[in-house]
Write a structure and sequence with these properties.
Layout: E1 2-4, H1 21-30, E2 35-38, H2 39-44, E3 57-59, H3 63-72
Parallel strand pairs: 1-2, 2-3
């Protein structure tokens, strides 16, 4: 699972990907990787769900909360 929050979410607006990135995201989704966008970031940056690639879910309680929930379920937090 990938949780995106903060300014990084701007990079995931449909049509704003660098060459090849959109295809890579689609390939990851096809392989079962889930992408979550932080609802708080979406509101702050005026990004609507329809501006994100199809298949994105919204972390309604926020990206940081989603990360904490995933860690509680045994996932690891990796930050590039």
């Amino acid at each position: 699972m990938v949780v995106i929050h903060g300014e990084a979410l701007s990079s995931f607006r449909s049509g704003s990907f660098p060459a090849g990135t959109g295809e890579r995201v689609e390939a990851l989704m096809a392989d079962g990787v889930s992408f979550f966008a932080c609802a708080n970031t979406m509101q702050a940056l005026s990004i609507s769900k329809d501006q994100l690639p199809g298949g994105f879910s919204v972390a309604e309680n926020g990206g940081v909360v989603k990360i904490a929930e995933l860690q509680s379920a045994g996932y690891l937090y990796l930050r590039p």
